[in-house]
TrEMBL record, chain A:
Residues 197-297 form the Na+/H+ antiporter MnhB subunit-related protein domain. This is Hydrogen gas-evolving membrane-bound hydrogenase subunit E. Residues 103-178 form the MrpA C-terminal/MbhE domain. Signal peptide: none annotated. The keyword Transmembrane helix applies. One of its GO terms (cellular component) is plasma membrane. It is found in: Cell membrane. It holds the Pfam family MbhD. The gene is mbhE. The chain crosses the membrane at residues 6-25, 32-50, 56-75, 96-118, 156-174, 195-215, 221-239, 251-273, 285-308.
From TrEMBL, chain B:
Keywords: Cell membrane, Membrane, Transmembrane, Transmembrane helix. It is found in: Cell membrane; Membrane. Its main location: membrane. This is Proton-conducting transporter membrane subunit. The lineage of its organism: Bacteria, Pseudomonadati, Pseudomonadota, Gammaproteobacteria, Natronospirales.
Automatic annotation (TrEMBL), chain C:
It holds the Pfam family Oxidored_q2. It is found in: Cell membrane. It comes from Natronospira elongata. This is NADH-quinone oxidoreductase subunit K. Its EC number is 1.6.5.9. Keywords: Cell membrane, Membrane, Oxidoreductase, Transmembrane, Transmembrane helix. InterPro entries: CPA3_antiporter_subunitC, NUOK/Mnh_C1-like. Belongs to the CPA3 antiporters (TC 2.A.63) subunit C family. Its main location: membrane. GO terms for cellular component: plasma membrane. One of its GO terms (molecular function) is NADH dehydrogenase (quinone) (non-electrogenic) activity. PANTHER family: ANTIPORTER SUBUNIT MNHC2-RELATED (PTHR34583). The lineage of its organism: Bacteria, Pseudomonadati, Pseudomonadota, Gammaproteobacteria, Natronospirales.
Length: 320, 493, 106
């Protein structure tokens, strides 16, 4: 007898492998990109199956959504370029012998890793046991949020620095290098778009706020919420409601750094009331977490949106 | 302020000082004032490092649990002799390169100041965080900070070649970090721990941990450009703007190599066999010989220096097969000397390029008279890298060769000696272009052009080169610091 | 049984990604392949506690969330770099075809 749950898992795994395989081995870039976005959606389902709803939300919003939008952007540029001239050259493609050796090694690697991964423990390790016992009485209800904003808050803080660095890197490209004028089509405005956005805006704002608010007790949090808000911004950018500008206004710069800044200030200020950085005070810890998480949400949303926008700043555009 | 408070405050300041300053600079778009604040911060850190080192020497290795959580749950800061050495190197180099970069930005047109300064400060913070970290996953995050600060630094030099090199660097780093993360995941799955000090106490030998160690090593090796995954480094380091090249060669690549030593010596020590250690040593030796020969064949100054980095990082791997206190001290000393000397070399190369507009070796002819200080730096730093007495490189090689002979592994001594000869050869080759070629500049306006080299550009490399030499006199003084909690046994230096 | 299935999937995805990184020459394909490798590691991290009788372990979940954000940061920068690099390639191609070989190697 095969249980229906297992059948679903089996289908999901076959789907993941098939889609990932055809994505990375396909010829066209556009095709690969679309397949990769489907892969992201299947991963979101997988996380849900594996009792990781926080990851399912993050994967759907960031992994499939924003990465997909970024990839499509890059593909569009490449496609316009290819139209002008030559087909993709295969001059520097590796030879058959190399491919065969790589394939053989990869199969061996897959077999070895599969055996190793399966054989590893399923019981709690020392860190997991501590996280579980300490997490039970924690003032934050969602165990994942507890780890992200308390036990391993330092990782979360540094990860915000990674996000900011990616944006600074993009700023260098914008300021010091040139993109050819691709004659972008005027922002599309299908007839149903305006009413759709009118409905979508409050819904997505509400969902974003809900994710932020709920994150302390149930699945969700700054990342999921920030990614959703960024997606709303991407919609506005694509429809010309936000237009790129050549400077980052002070307000935008403030939003970009506010999360990391508040988090870092708290990390240092903790030395006033305790002997360890990043330690929450006895009182008002919950409000402090909410404040930091709100600032993180804003910074994440703004950074992801600006990474997509490919411009230094954004301004309100003409709406019809 | 007592020693206890200091040993809490300094690590926090090392990570969050540059980080908060970076945010402030990004927000307020400060230019020169940011340089002054950065220099001030560097001086404060330098001043505090001295009593801090004393405190660690007196009280043993420092382990601080962030967030005040239990050991094993929290991410710890961990400071032993190796960490101390790297923190010193980091602070010194960022201080002097800050001075240099401020002057460099004023000459550069168009100046990439708005991006250079936050990148510089975030890299400073990220490297300090990496050296202080005692947690495997946190190390992954700090590695990503260094990568995403380093790759954009490469493209600051405005060119097609720089972009292509940066893309290659980024791909290597991206794949490397994922392979590293696979190792971290295997460790967590097997041992249930991420804290390095706890792993050192508790990890039993297990095949999964061996695989994890190999995966982490392979991943980090791609970021450190160790032979044979070094292909991206020469072009990336050579095409980056010179202050960035100095940071990349002296610190960023070294930070990744540092991680290999951190993992093999201590936390995962029980997971490898002598045969694996010999293999790691052989890779290091192959890198030393191969990259030194490549350095001899380059026609551009910065590419010689970049290939020299690949060679010099190979020495660090020699610690693994020898694994004695003598080799430990020798390798750390080598890392310190190379860091100071390599930064000096790249900064001096930057000065030469600014005047000559080009870094091909042929152009150096006649520079010994008009750009004498920069040529002097290349000579002094080169001597330190080659390991001639009385430099820091000599002490490092002396200790390493003694360690090799003491452990009966004479073949490493041969490699070290050969590497020193080759290094002397490629440095002498640069100098011979400057001294012995006919001077084409007698009729050209090079004499005016050198006027733009301000003191802030000329003196930092000179001081760094002298520091690399002065290290040679301080071996006995510094050895006790390097040995703090050294996870090796055997003869003392 | 379920864990075995997912472990095999994670291992195969990792090897598949690595193979594609090695043999593909297109940058977008290589980036996608690296992302597939990263996803495989994330999947493995979550599997560690999938059959834990005590319930799921929050630490790997937090690590994967951090990992996803880092992956998207790296990918976003890499894609931007790729676009500008291709634009520079094109420009070089065009000037190269117009000017013939006058410029020569520098």
């Amino acid at each position: 007898m095969i249980e229906p749950g297992f059948l679903l898992d089996l289908l999901l795994c076959l789907g993941l492998l098939g889609i990932a395989g055809s994505a990375v081995l396909s010829r066209g870039q556009f095709r690969a990109t679309v397949l990769f976005m489907v892969f992201g959606l299947l991963m979101a389902l997988t996380w849900a199956r594996l009792q990781a709803p926080d990851l399912a939300l993050a994967e759907a919003a960031i992994g499939a959504g924003l990465t997909g939008a970024l990839l499509l952007n890059a593909c569009k540029a490449t496609y316009t370029r290819r139209q002008a001239g030559e087909a993709a050259s295969q001059d520097d493609a590796p030879g058959t012998v190399f491919r065969l050796v790589a394939a053989g090694l990869s199969i061996l690697l897959a077999a070895g890793l599969a055996w190793l991964m399966y054989s590893l423990t399923v019981a709690d390790g020392p860190a997991a046991a501590m996280a579980r016992s300490e997490g039970e009485s924690h003032f934050l209800g969602n165990p994942v949020t507890v780890v992200l904003l308390d036990f391993r808050a330092y990782d979360t803080l540094l990860e915000m620095a990674v996000l900011l660095l990616a944006l600074i890197g993009v700023h260098i490209l914008i300021r010091h290098y040139r993109l050819p004028d691709l004659h972008p089509p005027a922002p599309v405005s299908p007839p149903m778009l305006t009413p759709l956005l009118t409905v979508a805006t409050p819904l997505m704002l509400m969902a974003g706020l809900y994710l932020f608010w709920a994150g302390s007790q149930s699945p969700g949090g700054a990342f999921q919420s920030g990614a959703l808000l960024a997606a709303l911004g991407v919609l506005y950018r694509l429809t010309g409601r936000l237009v790129p500008t050549g400077t980052a206004s002070p307000g935008l710069r403030l939003i970009l750094v506010i999360g990391l800044a508040l988090f870092s200030l708290f990390a240092c200020a903790a030395l006033i009331w305790s002997s360890a950085p990043l330690q929450y005070p006895e009182t008002a810890a919950y409000s402090l977490v909410l404040l930091i998480e709100f600032a993180l949400t804003l910074s994440i949303a703004a950074t992801l949106l600006m990474l997509f926008s490919g411009s230094l700043g954004l301004a309100r555009g003409q709406t019809s | 302020m007592g020693l206890t408070e200091l040993s809490i405050l300094l690590p926090v300041l090392m990570v969050f000082g540059p980080l908060l300053l970076a945010l402030l600079v990004f927000l307020a778009q400060w230019q020169r004032s940011a340089d002054w604040l950065g220099m001030g911060l560097g001086l404060i850190l330098l001043a505090l490092l001295t009593p801090f080192s004393g405190a660690v020497l007196l009280e043993g290795p420092l382990e601080m649990q962030l967030g005040g959580h239990d050991r094993g749950l929290a991410i710890p800061f961990y400071v032993d002799g190796l960490t101390l050495a790297m923190l010193w190197l980091n602070t010194l180099l960022f201080l002097f390169i800050q001075v240099y970069a401020g002057a460099w930005l004023q000459l550069k047109q168009p100046a990439p100041a708005a991006e250079f300064r936050p990148l510089f400060l975030l890299l400073w913070s990220g490297l300090n965080a990496l050296f202080l970290s005692g947690d495997l996953f946190n190390l992954y995050v700090t590695l990503e900070i260094t990568t995403l600060a380093a790759v954009p630094l490469v493209i600051l030099s405005h060119g097609h070649a720089a972009m292509a090199a940066a893309m290659r660097y980024l791909l290597f780093a991206l794949v490397g970090s994922i392979i590293f993360l696979l190792g971290v995941a295997l460790v967590y799955a097997q041992a249930g721990l991420l804290s390095l000090p706890l792993l050192q106490e508790q990890a039993e030998p297990h095949p999964a941990l061996t695989v994890a160690l190999l995966a982490m090593t392979a991943g980090v090796a791609m970021k450190a450009a160790l032979f044979p995954v070094h292909a991206w480094l020469p072009e990336a380091h050579a095409s980056a703007p010179s202050p960035a090249s100095a940071l990349l060669s002296a610190l960023v690549a070294k930070a990744a190599a540092y991680l290999i030593l951190r993992l093999w010596m201590g936390p995962l020590e029980a997971q490898w066999t002598p045969a694996m250690a010999q293999l790691m040593g052989a890779l290091g030796a192959a890198g030393i010989i191969y990259a030194s020969i490549q350095a001899l064949r380059q026609t551009r100054l910065k590419r010689v220096i970049a290939y020299s980095t690949v060679a010099q990082l190979g020495y660090l791997l020699l610690l693994i097969p020898m694994a004695s206190v003598l080799a430990w001290n020798g390798v750390i000393y080598h890392a310190l000397t190379h860091g100071l000397a390599k930064a000096a070399l790249f900064l001096a190369a930057g000065n030469l390029i600014m005047v000559l507009r080009d870094d091909s070796l042929r152009n150096l002819a006649g520079c010994d008279r008009v750009l004498s200080k920069n040529i002097l730096v290349i000579g002094l730093a080169g001597v330190a890298i080659a390991g001639l007495p009385p430099t820091g490189g000599f002490i490092a090689k002396w200790w390493l060769i003694s360690a090799a002979l003491e452990s009966g592994q004479w073949w490493w001594a041969v490699v070290i000696g050969l590497g020193g000869l080759l290094a002397a050869a490629y440095i002498f080759r640069i100098l011979s272009y400057a001294f012995f070629s006919p001077d084409p500049h007698q009729e050209t306006p090079i004499h005016q052009a050198q006027g733009q080299l301000t003191r802030a550009l000329v003196w930092p490399p000179v001081i760094l080169a002298f520091l690399a030499i002065a290290l040679g006199m301080a071996g006995g003084l510094l050895a006790p610091f390097l040995e703090i909690a050294a996870p090796v046994t055997g003869a003392q230096a | 049984m379920t864990v075995m299935l997912y472990a095999t999937t994670a291992a195969t995805l990792f090897a598949l990604g690595l193979y594609a990184v090695l043999v593909r020459t297109g940058l977008i394909h290589r980036l996608l392949a690296a992302n597939v490798m990263a996803t495989a590691v994330f999947l493995f991290l979550i599997l560690v506690s999938a059959e834990n009788p005590e319930g799921v372990d929050a630490i790997p979940q937090a690590m994967v969330l951090t990992g996803i954000v880092i992956a998207v940061s790296l990918t976003a920068f890499a894609l931007a770099l790729l676009r500008y690099l291709q634009a520079a390639d094109d420009e070089e191609d065009q000037t190269g075809s117009q000017d013939g070989r006058q410029n020569g190697p520098d």
